[in-house]
Amino acid sequence: MRYQLVINRASGSGILDNQEGQERLVSIFAEAGHEVTVQVVDPSHLDRALTDALASDCDGIIIGGGDGSITSTADRVAQSDKVLGVLPLGTFNLEARDLGISLDPFEAARELATAEVKKIDLLRVNEFPCLCTMVIGFYPIAAKMRKDIHGSAWWRKSLQIPLQMTQIATRCPVLDLTLRTDGQTVRRKTRATAFSPGEYVDEFGLIPRRENLASGKLFTYISEHLTRAQLWKLSLDFLTGRLFSTEGMTVLDCEELTLNAGKRGQIPAMIDGEIVRLQLPCQIRVEPAALSILVPSQP
């Protein structure tokens, strides 16, 4: 196959911003019988590079970057006949983890070179695409983490999350949510609610993970933990792998829903690591099997 590999220069601490690293990537794919063209571009030139790649006769586009870059690329690739590959170079690399891709870029390249093409779901949040998860309610924490944790060891990143959540979430306003789906109306007060294309699994580990990325379902996780004590309990459950089955967590699964938050006309949200302003009422729906993506072959 012929691939265009587009790398966001701002990602990965510049690990691939040199000829030696790029030639190593080309060699890895060539050994598996693939032809790869590598581009390392500044964030301001990423959109142009993707436009050129989509207009080319390549079979697939491999994006090297963080979750935000991967999601924006996925949305464009989903509207084409090309396949997407994920080379993780971000802070949390959520989609790469869910796909089972190594977080070492050269090992990830080896996995992509022998990967299978599979179809996975996308989430559509008003006009925004979402590949991993959207969170509302505690977005200031996510914004702060992105600044303070980038470049830290992965375990230190993860341990800081629940501590900051407890400290900061109590200062965030409570959202009075109304969710309408399948003839059902659900009302909850929350400080944090997440939406994802696919169900998260409860298991020991510091970063939540989804197993089935092609369920055709939108999953909603509404935390009703409002007090400091309840938030400490939520943090403990997060660290011990009981986050999604903890008492006070409402879980919904559907194909689409309408979201409102009292009289608010808009709310901040974090979609795959990027902060956006969400207009209300908000329409959220799953787009089943919308994206062709490279998934490492199972041994």
Automatic annotation (TrEMBL):
One of its GO terms (molecular function) is kinase activity. Residues 1-129 form the DAGKc domain. It comes from the Bacteria. Keywords: Kinase, Transferase. Pfam families: DAGK_cat, YegS_C. The keyword Transcription regulation does not apply. InterPro entries: ATP-NAD_kinase_N, Diacylglycerol_kinase_cat_dom, NAD/diacylglycerol_kinase_sf, YegS/DAGK_C. The keyword Transferase applies. This is Diacylglycerol kinase. The lineage of its organism: Bacteria, Pseudomonadati, Verrucomicrobiota, Verrucomicrobiia, Verrucomicrobiales.
